[in-house]
Amino acid sequence: MYICQLCDARCCKLRVITITIFDVIKIKEKTSLKEDKFCELRKANLLNLDPNFILECKEGSLILTLKSQPCVFLEGKKCSIYRFAPTICRAYPFVERRRIKTSICPSYIKPLFIIRGIEENVLKRFKIELREYKNIVYSWNEEVGKRGTKKECMEFLLREGRKRFRSLERLFKDI
Question: N or C end of the chain: which has fewer CB within 10 A?
């Protein structure tokens, strides 16, 4: 049993879940779903959003997210894709510097996260994927940006993500 089963899945029900293109590729491979069934480019109108995740398109400033609130993969209180869930979900509630952000979690859960900690390989994967995804976002914004549509942006993300995904997967096998 993982700790989140003790909760009522508030983060999966209430939060916008930002993801990377690597998460999209992984989910597509494991489920055979088309990306438009589980993710979207949505308006980037969140506070505290890292500007390096913002994709500029004709439609405005966008971010890549799971279809969420509630998450499209939430079944009751359980994640139906937990084994290959987005890295941000697997790393939650830890953030890059090992700090815990559990403001949405019930108070009795936080000590359990502190005791368990985060698996070192999940944290490493999280950092590497974020860095690589930010590079892809930067490339889009520099090469195409506001001249491109949402559809063109998603195609670009998938193309560039696939180029890097295999090498990242090889790297992660060694972690």
Answer: N
User: Which residues sit opposite 18 in a β-bridge?
Assistant: 65
Amino acid at 135: N
8, 105 Cβ separation under 8 angstroms: no
pLDDT tens-digit readout, 45-73: 876 678 899 999 999 999 999 998 899 99
Question: What is the model's pTM?
Answer: 0.84
Per-residue pLDDT band for 89 (boundaries 50, 70, 90) equals confident
Q: What is the distance between the alpha carbons of residues 93 and 111, in angstroms, rounded to a whole number?
A: 12
Q: Is 1 exposed, middle or buried (0-12, 13-18, 19+ CB in 10 A)?
A: exposed
Q: What is the three-class DSSP state of 19?
A: coil
- Range scoring the smallest mean pLDDT among 40-44, 83-87, 135-139: 83-87
Report the candidate in 109, 81, 92 with the shortest Cα–Cα distance to residue 3: 109
> Cis peptide before 93, with omega less than 30 degrees from 0?
yes
What's the token pair of residue 4? 């989140």
